[in-house]
C-alpha cells in the first residue's frame, strides 16, 4: 500500500472500510460494530457510555482514574548520579498542562479515555520555539489511528479525515493492545460480562417496577368470553402494577384465583449473580474487590487490606504509571534531559506506627535526615535538620571514630608478647602423638 493510500484508509470511516472489505461479511454483528453499537448474547447494548450504568463499572472507572490522577507528577534530571527536581518550562508543563482544567481533571480525563476506550489522545499545542505548552484531550471516538506504511510513522485521522496529524501534534496513550498501534477497549472486550450485569439490572428493575414479585395465571371455574378474560386481566394488572400497588389487596370476582408459576428470584440466585458480576468487573479492570466495597469473601482487617492495596499498586497501578511516565518523557519532554516520574510514597507508606518505625531505622543509619523525614510527612524543615547521624559503634572499614585513616592515625606503642606459662604447652596433634 502506498503512503497516500494508507492515509486515505485511515481517513475512511469505520463502517465504510468494513463495507468495502470483501473479507468482512455484512452481518448484523459487523454492521452494528461498525456503527459503534455492540450487541451481545444478553441482548443489551454495551458501549463505553452505557456500561457506566453498572455500579461496579462506574466504581472501577472511578478508582482506576482518580487514584493515578491524584498522584504528584514531576519532572526530574540526573545530576552527578543524583535525581534532582527539574525547574523551568518542562516542569511547569507537568504542573499546569491546561489553561482551564486542573492537572487532576486533565489526567483524570486521560485515564478515563484510556480505561474506557483503550486509548487516550491529547493535542499538543506548541509555542513559537516548538516547545509543548498545553495538552488538550480529544474524545477517542473522533480519532482513527494507523501507519502510513509498513514501518512508517503513525498518523491520526481526526473527525473522519478532516485533519491528519502525527506524533508531533498528538500525544497517544494506548492501553493493552495486540498490534503495537492502539489499545483494546476493556469494556468492548468485556461486553458479555457487562451485558449480563446490564441484563440482570434491567430484570431487577422490571421485577420491582411492576410491583409483583411473581408471575402466574388467573383461574376460574366459570367459562369466560374473550372480553371478560381481557377485563379480568386488565383489572389484575391495574391493581398489581407499579410500586404504589405493592403489598396491596386485590379482590377477585367470579371465583377467580391466582396461581403462582415463577420461582422466587432469590431461589433463582438472582442476588448471587449480581454479586458475581462485581467480581467479574474486578478481574477485567484489575482492582481488588475491597476497593469495590465487596468484602464478603475477603478479610476486612487493616493489615490484610493494606497488603491487598500494596499488591494493587505494585502489580496493576505501577505498570500503568510506568507507561504514562515513558510516554510523557519520550513524546513531550524530549529532547531535554528531563524525565517524568510519579511520587508513590503516599500510596506505599503504611500506617503511622509502621512509618515511625521505618523513619527511626533510616534516621539511625544516616540514610535520612530530619528534614527529609519531615518532607515525606509534608512538614516544613527545621534548622539543623539536614545533618545526618550514624551510630558511634559503626564506622567505615579503615577509619577511626574521628574519620581519619589508619595511616594518619598515631601508631599504637608496641606491646611485648606475653610470656607463655611454662606449664602450658601447645596441644599436640594426632600426628605428633603418633610419631613422637
Task: Kindly summarize this structure in a few lines.
41% of the residues lie in helices and 13% in strands. A hairpin with a 6-residue loop joins β5 (143-147) and β6 (154-158). Among the domains are: 39-118 and 185-211 and 268-346, no CATH class; 215-261; 349-395, no CATH class.
What labels would you give this structure?
single chain; 436 residues; alpha+beta; three-stranded antiparallel beta sheet
Structural class: alpha+beta
Mean pLDDT: 77
Q: State which percent range the strand residues make up.
A: 5-15%
The total strand number stands at 11
Main sheet summary: 3 strands, antiparallel
- Rg computed from alpha carbons, rounded to a whole number of angstroms: 35 Å
Oligomer: single chain
Instruction: Tell me the span between the first and last alpha carbons.
Output: 97 Å
Question: In percent, how helical is the residue content?
Answer: 40-55%
Task: Show unreliable segments.
Answer: 1-19, 420-436
Number of helices: 15
- Order of SSEs: HHHHEEHHEEEEEEHHEHEHHEHHHH
Structure description:
The chain is α+β, with helices and mostly antiparallel strands. Among the domains are: 39-118 and 185-211 and 268-346, no CATH class; 215-261; 349-395, no CATH class. Helix content is 41%, strand content 13%. It contains 15 helices and eleven strands. The chain has helices spanning 3-11, 14-20, 28-34, 55-70, 89-95, 103-117, 186-189, 191-209, 226-240, 270-285, 302-333, 345-348, 352-365, 370-376, 430-434, and strands spanning 73-79, 82-85, 119-126, 132-138, 143-147, 154-158, 163-165, 170-174, 216-219, 257-260, 339-342. The strands form four sheets. A three-stranded antiparallel β-sheet has the order 2-1-11. It has a three-stranded antiparallel β-sheet with strand order 4-3-8. α2 runs antiparallel to α3 (28-34), α4 runs parallel beside α10 and α8 (191-209) packs antiparallel against α10. It is flat and about 110 Å long. Residues 1-19 and 420-436 have low confidence and may be disordered.
Amino acid at each position: 500500500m502506498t503512503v497516500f493510500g494508507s492515509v486515505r484508509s485511515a481517513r475512511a470511516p469505520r463502517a465504510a472500510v468494513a463495507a468495502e472489505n470483501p473479507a468482512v461479511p455484512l452481518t448484523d454483528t459487523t454492521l452494528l460494530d461498525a456503527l459503534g453499537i455492540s450487541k451481545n448474547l444478553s441482548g443489551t447494548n454495551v458501549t463505553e457510555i452505557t456500561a457506566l450504568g453498572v455500579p461496579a463499572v462506574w466504581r472501577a472507572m472511578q478508582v482506576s482514574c482518580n487514584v493515578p490522577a491524584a498522584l504528584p507528577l514531576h519532572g526530574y534530571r540526573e545530576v552527578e548520579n543524583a535525581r534532582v527536581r527539574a525547574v523551568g518550562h518542562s516542569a511547569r508543563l507537568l504542573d499546569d498542562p491546561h489553561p482551564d482544567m486542573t492537572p487532576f481533571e486533565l489526567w483524570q480525563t486521560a485515564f478515563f479515555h484510556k480505561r474506557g476506550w483503550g486509548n487516550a489522545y491529547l493535542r499538543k499545542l506548541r509555542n513559537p520555539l516548538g516547545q509543548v505548552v498545553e495538552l488538550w484531550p480529544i474524545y477517542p471516538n473522533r480519532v482513527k489511528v494507523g501507519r502510513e506504511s509498513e514501518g512508517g510513522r503513525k498518523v491520526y485521522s481526526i473527525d473522519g479525515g478532516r485533519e491528519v496529524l502525527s506524533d508531533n501534534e498528538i500525544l497517544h496513550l494506548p492501553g493493552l493492545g495486540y498490534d503495537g498501534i492502539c489499545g483494546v477497549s476493556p469494556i468492548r472486550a468485556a461486553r458479555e460480562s457487562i451485558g449480563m450485569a446490564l441484563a440482570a439490572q434491567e430484570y431487577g428493575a422490571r421485577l420491582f417496577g411492576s410491583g409483583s414479585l411473581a408471575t402466574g395465571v388467573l383461574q376460574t371455574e366459570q367459562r369466560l368470553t374473550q372480553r371478560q378474560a381481557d377485563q379480568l386481566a386488565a383489572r389484575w394488572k391495574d391493581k398489581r402494577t407499579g410500586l404504589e400497588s405493592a403489598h396491596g389487596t386485590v379482590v377477585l370476582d367470579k371465583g377467580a384465583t391466582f396461581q403462582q408459576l415463577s420461582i422466587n428470584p432469590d431461589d433463582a440466585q438472582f442476588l448471587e449473580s449480581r454479586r458475581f458480576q462485581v467480581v467479574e468487573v474486578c478481574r477485567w479492570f484489575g482492582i481488588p474487590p475491597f476497593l469495590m466495597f465487596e468484602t464478603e469473601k475477603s478479610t476486612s482487617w487493616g493489615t490484610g487490606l493494606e497488603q491487598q492495596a500494596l499488591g494493587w499498586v505494585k502489580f496493576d497501578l505501577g505498570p500503568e504509571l510506568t507507561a504514562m511516565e515513558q510516554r510523557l518523557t519520550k513524546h513531550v519532554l524530549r529532547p531535554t534531559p528531563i524525565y517524568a516520574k510519579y511520587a508513590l510514597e503516599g500510596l506505599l507508606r503504611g500506617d503511622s506506627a509502621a512509618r515511625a518505625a521505618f523513619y527511626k531505622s533510616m534516621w539511625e543509619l544516616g540514610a535520612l535526615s530530619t528534614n527529609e523525614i519531615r518532607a515525606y510527612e509534608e512538614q516544613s524543615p527545621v534548622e539543623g535538620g539536614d545533618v545526618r547521624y550514624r551510630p558511634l559503634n559503626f564506622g567505615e572499614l579503615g577509619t577511626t571514630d574521628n574519620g581519619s585513616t589508619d595511616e594518619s592515625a598515631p601508631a599504637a606503642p608496641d606491646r611485648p608478647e606475653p610470656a607463655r606459662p611454662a606449664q602450658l604447652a601447645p596441644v599436640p596433634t594426632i600426628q605428633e602423638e603418633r610419631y613422637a
